[in-house]
Amino acid sequence: MTDTAKSTAPTYELTVAGGASLLLSPLSEADAQRLGAAFAAIDPWAAYGYAAETLVKFLATVEPGAQRLALTYEGSVVGAVVIRPAWLRGPYLQFLAILPGAQGQKLGSAFLAWMEREARDAGERNLWVAASEINGDAIRFYLRHGFQPAAHLDDLAYDGRTEILFRKRLV
Questions:
Q1: Which of 105, 62, 107, 104 is nearest to 80 (CA)?
Q2: What's the sign of the alpha-carbon dihedral 35, 37, 41, 46?
Q3: CA neighbours closer than 13 Å in the CB half-sphere of residue 128
Q4: Which residues of 113-149 are buried (b: 16+ CB within 10 A; e: fewer)?
Q5: pLDDT in tens, 41-52
Q6: Predicted TM-score of the model (pTM)
Q7: Domains plus CATH for the chain?
């Protein structure tokens, strides 16, 4: 995908609890720079020792088959998602992060509801996501949204740690 293709990619407006809007749009390089640096300072990335440059590079990469979206709330880009749409009979949410100041506003819930609607409309069977065992907030979040543990992956992202693969069945 070229920068031109990025700028013409769809934008989605979601309604968050309380009637506020959450905008999903292509993630710009400038937003990838700012968010990558901020995410490197919070867990689980800080606990894993991810350098800001590593997260910036990941977020800024243009990669076929991996949609990168900015989450804009109240006029500010407050988060990012990376979705791999064609994974095991459904999309895989590879990355979801929201800046601490915007957490607790139901933005993640609105995003997951949108992702599920999109997957159901496409006839998919599953939603997938992985979370680190050290990220209790993420684990509780995904469980609350109907995801169930499907596998434990030892030493995947970091030696001595386990990632949990979650699945939400749509059929």
A1: 107
A2: positive
A3: 18
A4: ebbbeebeeeebebbbbbbbeebeebbebbeebebee
A5: 999 999 989 999
A6: 0.90
A7: 11-169 (3.40.630.30)
